[in-house]
């Protein structure tokens, strides 16, 4: 949050008031990439820190609460605040899918009281019509803007109908080499490219890399449908790769973040740190620090 | 360590065997900045990642064990390994100054068994001849290469005599606005500039910034005597500033690290995270991650 305030201060110090007014708020919106306002950047403008405002990231950092799956909601919220993240997507451990609307609203209120923003839920598997219907009612009751989901392909038409009805986005999550339906962002994109634009991708860059696909190439290729990101690092670019602290694995995270800035991604980059399930705070903190450090150096 | 291995791999992939042989080992030495081998870098070489080997940092990351002052040695070593740091300077909490040579050697052996390198000790205050003598015997028994110390100015002649006799460096630690002897690196430099070159500075960048001095300017100005660094961030550039996770405070850490690369600093950058004394691991991990992220983006 301090980070954001500083960005805004720098912003106001270099931008005229009119320009500021036209851009404020852009950076916190969740969803698709937005086209650049104004003319194309010159090479000079991209490099010169005095023109940093033109290249500033439009995305925010958040948490996929699967990271804290072995902790109760209250502890998870405390840890999220501890590492300075504001946005959170809850996994069912913290908000069961079969909760009543009143229970869901109570959890949403706790997130808000903690000073966090409940922007999404997931990963939510949808294997039947009933599960699709339940997911949308769940997301609506919680005030979520996006469902990070895995709907069976034959249910995508129903998903599209619900997206139009509820105006809630669905970001399809790729799960790597072992996943027969959506191993890569490309495999998901193929199935949703002709559907409503509010159906897009949650690019899990660990699973993308495990499938042998470069996450930087992948997010740029499908930038028009990029709705959410699971940020992590993995030990190798194969099915055997497993989660590790950001910066200790094989993903080129500086290049990935430069690509997100380049494509003007304006959603959330959510950390999903899968290692150390019973004691994840240090590894999560190191990962968040790493990404902030890269951003500080390239922004 | 993984980081280092990768650097070495990249290195070997771009450098010929002869060139590799002539440079291996440079990056791990502790001590003064080393002049560049070969001709001056062109702007192109500095920017182009294929020539990264020429601009790669020569310093390593480490820990000032004051960070873990409320933990026993064994726990401190475990936490140091957890955040992936290899070099450590022990504070008296972990190795009392009045230890016998046998006790000192036993602690040094434990550090080695943990896979860490005990490169220094401190901060060690030296207020009498006896304390100077003790500090050098202590450092010698521990195999330390550098004493991070605060000798009374009138003892500096004795310190110089001991440096020559023991060939152990002394890095004088600045302690900010409240310190009447060495508030800034400049005030220490003034007192040691005509002494043996093995007497230099440990620039504590938090205290430097708290004294209203830009750490980047400070390390560049006194590069010839820069022997150690206490890496941290602080909430404000005044006496009221206090320690905070790297990246959350007011120090421009990307610029600082770029400066260390520019001046070819070849010692250790040791984290001294003073916040959360009873539960420092998450904040230390975030700080280490932040610095690694910056380095990944600029190296």
What does this structure look like?
The structure is a homodimer of 299-residue chains. By secondary structure, chain A is an alpha/beta fold. Chain A has one domain: TIM Barrel (Alpha-Beta Barrel). Helix content of chain A is 42%, strand content 17%. The first copy, chain A, contains 13 helices and 10 strands. In chain A, the strands form 2 sheets. An 8-stranded parallel β-barrel of chain A has the order 1-2-3-4-5-6-7-10, surrounded by 6 helices. In chain A, strands 8-9 form a two-stranded antiparallel ribbon. In chain A, helix 7 runs parallel beside helix 8 and helix 11 runs parallel beside helix 12. Chain A is globular. The two termini of chain A are 16 Å apart. The N terminus of chain A is likely disordered. Chains A and B meet through helix 13 of A and helix 13 of B.
In short:
The first copy, chain A, contains 13 helices and ten strands. With 299 residues, chain A is α/β, with parallel strands linked by helices.
Characteristics:
homodimer, 299 residues, alpha/beta, TIM Barrel, 8-stranded parallel barrel, two-stranded antiparallel ribbon, 10 strands, 17% strand
Shape descriptor of chain A reads: globular
**Into how many domains do the coordinates of chain A divide?**
1
Q: What is the terminal-to-terminal distance of chain A?
A: 16 Å
Low-pLDDT runs of chain A:
1-54
Compute the number of strand runs of chain A: 10
Binned strand content of chain A:
15-25%
Task: Quickly give the structural class of chain A.
Answer: alpha/beta
Which architecture of chain A does the CATH hierarchy give at level 2? Answer: Alpha-Beta Barrel
Tally of DSSP helical segments of chain A:
13
- Main beta sheet of chain A: 8 strands, parallel, barrel
């Amino acid at each position: 949050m301090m980070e954001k305030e500083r960005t805004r201060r720098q912003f106001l110090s270099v931008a005229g008031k009119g320009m500021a007014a036209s851009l404020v708020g852009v950076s916190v919106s969740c969803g698709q990439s937005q086209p650049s306002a104004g003319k194309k950047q010159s090479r000079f403008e991209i490099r010169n820190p005095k023109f940093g405002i033109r290249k500033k990231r439009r995305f925010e950092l958040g948490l996929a609460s699967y990271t804290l799956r072995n902790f109760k909601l209250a502890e998870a919220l405390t840890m999220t605040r501890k590492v300075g993240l504001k946005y959170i997507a809850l996994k069912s451990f913290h908000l069961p899918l079969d909760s009543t609307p009143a229970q869901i609203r109570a959890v949403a209120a706790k997130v808000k009281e903690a000073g966090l923003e409940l922007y999404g839920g997931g990963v939510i598997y949808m294997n039947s019509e009933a599960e699709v219907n339940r997911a949308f009612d769940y997301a609506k009751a919680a005030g979520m803007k996006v469902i990070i989901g895995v709907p069976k392909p034959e249910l995508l038409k129903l998903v599209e109908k619900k997206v139009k009805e509820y105006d809630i986005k669905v970001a399809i999550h790729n799960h790597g080499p072992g996943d027969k339906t959506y191993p890569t962002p490309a495999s998901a994109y193929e199935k949703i490219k002709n559907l409503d634009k509010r159906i897009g991708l949650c690019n899990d860059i660990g699973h993308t890399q495990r499938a042998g696909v470069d996450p930087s190439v992948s997010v740029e290729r499908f930038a028009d449908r990029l709705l959410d990101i699971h940020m992590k690092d993995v030990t190798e670019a194969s099915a055997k790769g497993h989660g590790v602290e950001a910066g200790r694995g094989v993903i080129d995270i500086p290049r990935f973040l430069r690509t997100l800035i380049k494509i003007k991604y304006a959603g959330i980059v959510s950390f999903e740190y899968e290692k150390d399930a019973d004691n994840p705070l240090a590894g999560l903190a190191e990962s968040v620090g790493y990404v902030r450090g890269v951003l500080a150096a390239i922004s």
